[in-house]
Amino acid sequence: MFSPRLVFQRTFRETQSVQVSSKITRFNQPYCPTSARRASNHTRTMSIYSKSNVSTAPETPVENPSTSASHNAWSSPGPSAIDLRSDVVTTPTPSMLTAIGNCSLFDDVFQEDPTTSSLESFVASLAGKPAAVLVLSGTMGNQVAIRTHLQAPPHSIIVDDRSHIIRYEAGGAASLSGAMVTTVKPSNGRHLTLEDVKEHVVLSDDVHACPTKMVCLENTLNGTILPLEECRRISEWVRGHGIIMHLDGARLWEAVVAGAGELKGYCECFDTVSLCFSKGLGAPIGSILVGQEAFVKRARWVRKSIGGGMRQTGIIAAPARVAVEETFLGGGLQAAHVRAKKLGDYWESLGGKHEFPVETNMVWLSLKGTGVDTDEFIKLAESKGLRVMGERLVIHYQVTDEAEGKLKEVMNDVFSGKAKGEN
Ligand SMILES: Cc1ncc(COP(=O)(O)O)c(C=O)c1O
């Protein structure tokens, strides 16, 4: 006779790694939120893992780095101090660890976890929207938003041709939403304008047409700001034509801190906004989608359909809240902007040029005319103990004075010919 418990025990014995996880009991137990049931689940789980059930150890022991490490990964500065490849490398802080230790551990698919729902309400109120839903990543936030808003094809969305949604989200708008994507190059070379949108929008309901149903903007984009005034112009016209406005606001925090406008002011221009906790704010995981109640209800459904329904999300939500409170509201980002500006100015003082202006936490060096190519620049930075990916330098809030000094040395070497070994 089929017995889920026996199947589980056999499967478990057949796997050679031993991981104690209270989740495993859920194969056998109906859901019950009380702590009493949780306690009994735990006891049962531990008996499943008693020695008699664990038949074999792995033949070749596989080291567990988190129990064998000689250092504490939560001490600071962490490895991000010299890592300028992106702000996604920011290391979670000890206060985030404390928050994880104190969070609630209930099931979020059942919407029963207080740490998670309070984060959702907190961010929704900061953004001036009625509701919010936690998602795993910025990509998931954008793609769930697009899938939730769009109904049935034919439908198209307008995006900046440099946007993350079109370039770095694995074609999700096509595969998940069947959307035709119209990419637009900003005519002013900096950001999309209402005129750009009007030129490319499809309002027709002629059978040959693929009508525009969404305009998706991004702020910041390549570290540069989409001005609030332009958002308002685009929003008024676009929504006036019944078209949905979504913002990829992975780094909207940065624009707000740079003084471009209030978070609520920006969010007002959009039906939905995706905000990331694990870029410049430094949380380990997570993003959030804010919007109307009905949107968020449906977004939970879409999130579930792509495997984004999560269980004990308190461990994600707790550090995310610390990230918003300490890094965004607590002023952590401003100092990084000052450092970025200082480094950008230093590069210019040596005769360097930028690919994009320094407006937030990114410094885009132009290597054209320096005689140093991207690979040489990366190697030069490595020789000084810095990690870079190319000309884009992300000066996140965990970059240290020491790293700043090393980067100036790299810049000096680019212009003195040392990068080529000429001196
Ligand atoms: C502007 C922007 N949006 C969305 C994302 C996607 O975020 P994630 O890597 O969490 O999927 C990124 C990632 O860096 C991004 O830069």
Automatic annotation (TrEMBL):
GO biological processes: glycine biosynthetic process; L-threonine catabolic process
Signal peptide: none
Compositional bias ranges of the Polar residues kind: 51-78
Sites bearing N6-(pyridoxal phosphate)lysine, chain numbering: 279
Region of interest (Disordered), residue spans: 51-80
Cellular component aspect of the GO annotation: cytosol
Any Pfam family: Beta_elim_lyase
UniProt-listed Gene3D superfamilies: Aspartate Aminotransferase, domain 1, Type I PLP-dependent aspartate aminotransferase-like (Major domain)
Segments forming domain Aromatic amino acid beta-eliminating lyase/threonine aldolase: 83-366
Family, per entry: Belongs to the threonine aldolase family.
PANTHER family in UniProt: L-THREONINE ALDOLASE, L-THREONINE ALDOLASE-RELATED
Protein name per Swiss-Prot or TrEMBL: Aromatic amino acid beta-eliminating lyase/threonine aldolase domain-containing protein
Species of provenance: Eremomyces bilateralis CBS 781.70
Lineage: Eukaryota, Fungi, Dikarya, Ascomycota, Pezizomycotina
